[in-house]
Amino acid sequence: MRRICLTFLIMLAISLVVLGADQGVASATDKVPVKGMVTLLDLGSHQCLPCRMMEPILEELKEEYKGRAAIVFVDVWEDRGMGVKLGIRAIPTQIFYDKQGREVFRHEGFLSKANIELVLSKLGVEKPKASKK
Prior knowledge:
Radius of gyration: 19 Å
Number of helices: 4
Strand content: 15-25%
Oligomer: single chain
CATH topology: Glutaredoxin
CATH class: Alpha Beta
Helix content: 40-55%
Low-confidence stretches: 15-27
CATH superfamily: Glutaredoxin
Distance between the termini: 77 Å
Order of helices and strands: HEHEHEEH
Shape: globular
Mean pLDDT: 83
Number of strands: 4
CATH architecture: 3-Layer(aba) Sandwich
Strand order of the largest sheet: 2-1-3-4
Number of domains: 1
């Protein structure tokens, strides 16, 4: 009887953890893809070297493509449920969504600014004009 009670308590604890994680995933995934916009979701970590190499690129793109495309970063070590839900096997992983919110392209590993812009262009996002300095 004691063993049955212990097993039940362990299963209850695991269920509560899983349910709590699912609620977090739902709130994070509600934001991605951004409705009505081509969206680049970059899943990585602030601790991973290739992810850190992409940070300045993503910041540049976020500013340059403001209002044209959504550039979103999610740290999968902080939001583990998001990585699980999206089937992430390696970081960084970039997922591109079209304006209707359908996943159209996925890439694992470092992705250069030029290659990101190429995918955005194929999804109909106009490249911003170079600013004069």
